Amino acid sequence: MISSPVTIYFDGACPLCSREIAHYRKKDTAGRLRYVDIASPSFDAAAHGLDAKRVQKLMHVQLPDGKFATGVDAFIAIWNVLPGYEVMGKVAKLPLVKPLLHLAYRAFAAVRPHLPKRHKPGDKTSCPDDRCAV
Prior knowledge:
By secondary structure, the protein is of the alpha+beta class. It has one domain (6-114). The chain is built from 5 helices and 4 strands, in the order E-H-E-H-E-E-H-H-H. It has helices at 15-27, 52-57, 71-81, 86-92, 97-111; strands at 6-10, 33-37, 60-62, 68-70. Helix 3 (71-81) packs antiparallel against helix 4. The longest helix has 15 residues, at 97-111.
């Protein structure tokens, strides 16, 4: 059992990322995960001990001991504490599987900045005339 939650730093403007986080929130009935949206205007990377450019490029989690994990290792950290995902976390660490996951994640990380962004109601920077409001 973990002593404090694993903190996930996620891009709330990324539709795919947001969908995955919504899934984790449903599964996380024990409060093992904490969520920080790096797309929030109030997010300050330095205040969280993160590099602003790097946190935009790679998934980050902060572990209960204060250390950070990124990319595939971030997902493994999430899966290790999320009920029903423990086996996936173990499989992801296997010598033949982990390098393939790293390759796939690098490809996704390269494409992610080019994916359409979610627009939040009232966000005048990404949707100046509120046509994007839901």
